[in-house]
Amino acid sequence: MYNASNLRKGLKILIDKEPYVVVDFQFTKPGKGQALYRCKLRNMINGIMLDRTYRSVDSFESANLEQRKMQFLYSQEGHFHFMDLQSYDQSALSAEQVGDAKNYLIDNLEVDVLLFDGRPIGLTLPNFVDLLVTRADPWAKGDSVAGDSKPVTLETGYTLRVPPFIEEGIKITVDTRTGEYVTRVK
Amino acid sequence: MSPASNDPSSLLERETLAGKKQNLWLRAALVQAIRHFFTERKYLEVETPYLIPAPAPELHIDAIRADGGFLHTSPELCMKRLLAAGYPKIFQICRCFRQGERGRRHLPEFTLLEWYREDTNYLALMDECEEVVVFILEELGLPPLMQFQGRTLDFQRPWNRLTVQQAFERYASDPLDQALACGRFDEILAYEIEPSLGFPNPVFLYQYPSSLAALSRLSKDTPGVAERFELYVAGVELANAFSELTDSVEQRARFEKERAKRKEQGKTVYPLSEKFLRSLSYMPESAGIALGVDRLVMLLSNQKEIDPVVAFTPEEL
After folding, report:
1. In sequence order, which residues have a C-beta less than 8 Å from that of residue B30 and are 6 or more positions away?
2. pLDDT in tens, A116-168
3. Which residues from B are below 8 Å from A30, CB to CB?
4. How many separate domains does chain B show?
5. A103, A161, B240, B288: which sits with the fewest CB atoms below 10 Å from its CB?
6. pLDDT of B236-251, one tens digit each?
7. CB–CB of A22/A5 below 8 Å?
8. Would you say the ipTM is above 0.95?
């Protein structure tokens, strides 16, 4: 159980039996009055945002969330399948739940899958992932609008800009938080 | 220079602190101006203990425990005991502590200016409140018209006065009696009314419902309201004042009521300050006011949040 004074950015609570994360909150307290907490919350299952104002007397149940190390196996018909590295149980996430993380999901990649009441609802990628360049056009010098970089396509289908010396068949490290090129894998 | 001074976090801290220089100079000058104003008017500056055994039992103000007692949430009870003992004009600038109060305009440790005067009421304090702020502006060399976050503030006297009833009629989605009945008074005040108060002139919001004044006298002329006001400038609550309740029986009853409510909500129930209650029998008709010094600095330095006007926030320690 939490009460309103525990509210913080990042706190995960249960509202109408669904897990929400506090993404923003403002504390205020009119003179001699009660503390008020105006919160923006994101539903951790469907991503829908919610505005709520809580008072000092309000309390919340904590959401039963658990993170488990899993390995990406394959995707099929809009679902992404993972295997729990401890129990070897398999779980699936929908394309919406995976979101942009699909750009980095290669076979055997280890990720943290978030479970709510035992059901998978999302995943956290490692900060850096090494990916193979599957298509790179030769760099046309002087043709460049965005400076000294060119677009390439990776094995996951993700397209990003890299330095001109990156060629097809090379592996590069990508920062999954920004989606940007970090370095060439030696 | 030691090598440690080059690490990024200490550089960032130096930068943050250096960025506050102008505000901290203004803050220091403002405190001097306050002292100048009150000493010129023959007020006695007093210092009362921060560590006290029994804070005033107010439902929504939580004291921080310290060494078997509590850090004071305001110097009110001790200052009133001085008033009752024959100190007719007193002021204090002190740190106050309130558990869990942290927001854009709240710090759990903050600076209050509190002053009391005998033989007066809350209406006269409105005048004196205008006088002290205008005096501060003059001492700091600030014009009465200034910009705050892109809007104009006009400190020229007299300032506006608005009853709580009128404020609800003008700005709120629900009428006052309904807001009180369904427990939405604070919410409506904070989100629907306060943001509109104090543009361009400061405004005194006054005549609070009697249920919302633990230590103030009830109005003799208007039934159901307490002689209490709050000063708002640019949507910021700057001061709280009232004609002091001097009836010790009534005061004890109100304290007991607040204590019962605190108990019901599972909050710490503070011991009753018997010495304060006893002193009330000697207390003259008087009025007192508390003004948030940090917030005044915030307004005069055109900051929309409180953090840049204090050297260190709790998170920066």
Report:
1. B136, B140, B293, B296, B297, B300
2. 999 999 999 999 999 999 999 877 666 555 567 889 999 999 999 999 899 99
3. 186, 189-190, 194, 237
4. 1
5. A161
6. 999 999 999 999 999 9
7. no
8. no
- For chain B, which residues score pLDDT lower than 70? 1-6
**Residues in CB range of B131: below 8 A, 6 or more apart:** B37
B105 contact A CB<8A:
yes
Its domain, for residue B269, covers 3-316
Q: For an interface test with A, give the residue of B58, B186, B231 to mutate (most A CBs within 10 A).
A: B186
Q: Alpha-carbon dihedral of residues B296, B299, B305, B306, nearest 10 degrees?
A: -20
Q: Given an 8 Å threshold on Cβ–Cβ distance, is B190 in contact with A30?
A: yes
- Tokens 């699909």 — which residue? A102
Query: Which residues, in sequence order, are CB contacts of B194 under 8 Å at separation 6+?
Result: A30, B232, B235, B237
Closest to B282 (Cα-Cα) out of B235, B248, B243, B306: B248
Token representation of residue A100: 């942009």
Tell me the per-residue pLDDT of A62-105, one tens digit each, with 9 for 90 and over. Answer: 999 999 999 999 999 999 999 999 999 999 999 988 999 999 99
Q: Which residue has the tokens 């309000």?
A: A58
Contacting residues for A25 by C-beta, under 8 A, at least 6 apart: A7, A8, A9, A37, A38, A39, A40
Question: What's the gap in Å between the CA of B209 and the closest CA on chain A?
Answer: 12
B269 neighbors B235 (Cβ within 8 angstroms): no
- B184, with CB counted inside 10 A (0-12, 13-18, 19+), is middle
> Which of A64, A37, A63, A61 has its CA nearest to residue A51?
A37
The CATH number of whichever domain residue B291 belongs to comes to 3.30.930.10
